[in-house]
Amino acid sequence: MAHNFLHTNSSLDAGKNGSKDSKVTVDRFLDAIWMERGLSENTLDAYRADLLALDQRLKSRDVELMKASKADLLDYISWRVDGGAKPRSTARQLSSFRRFYRYLLREGVISVDPTAEIAMPKIGRSLPQSLSEDEVDALLAAPNVSEPLGNRDRAMLELLYATGLRVSELINLKMEQMNLNQGVIRVVGKGDRERLIPLGDEAQDWLRDFIEGARIEILLERQTDYLFPTRRGDRMTRQAFWHIIKRYAKKAGVSKKLSPHTVRHAFATHLLNNGADLRVVQLLLGHSDVSTTQIYTHVARERMKDLHSRHHPRG
Hints:
Strand order of the largest sheet: 1-2-3
Oligomer: single chain
């Protein structure tokens, strides 16, 4: 993966009041955590944006980023909260600051971590929105499979529901990652962790049908390694696929507020509803920590409670 932060020419960004120094330090920090942890470009972009926003506010108060105190950081956080920042957003920013100042401490740039005694804001962990099995069936049936693009969309939705892939993993899938003879796909997820995911018969049938028919029609004479090309023969973008899902949800009469992860959430919840082991679901989703997967057990438990109360109404 190309890494935008390596060898950044921060001298181009040089400005007044130590701006150059702080940007160079932020870039070094991003390089270091990228090499240590293999974080995604999106995560690194978020860290950079958080730190540069803090730097800008500190500069307006004649404080250097590397010399900020606990009071300076609390002032920044309260200023953002006054401006309408939500607890989740504040927690994410504070997490960025913590990682940055711990890095400076480790490197010997500072001797005291200003974030050490700042408490994380309390945020309720929101339960992921999920679809019922009937809603998933309606969504899968929405594309017009007699058209090449509709056939592609159905294969994408079937694969998404059969595997719980992240949307970014789905659109980046290449032909070489498919093994329909063995009924598995090989996926490289967050932190370059690789996992093998088994495919159900239904998903295999749709994929085989798409690869042998509609994919050839969409590409015509063009060549691409990507499994799901667009009409232009390019890789599909996240935004394009997101529009596709919203369009089919509307057609299927699904009125719930969807996110790009909705089908992934449905995959996890329905597996747990049907008695799958939490660790197995963790492996299939590619979560590094089982606590991330555990949130789905709450969704499944709520559903089970609901079903139980319907089957066993009280007195």
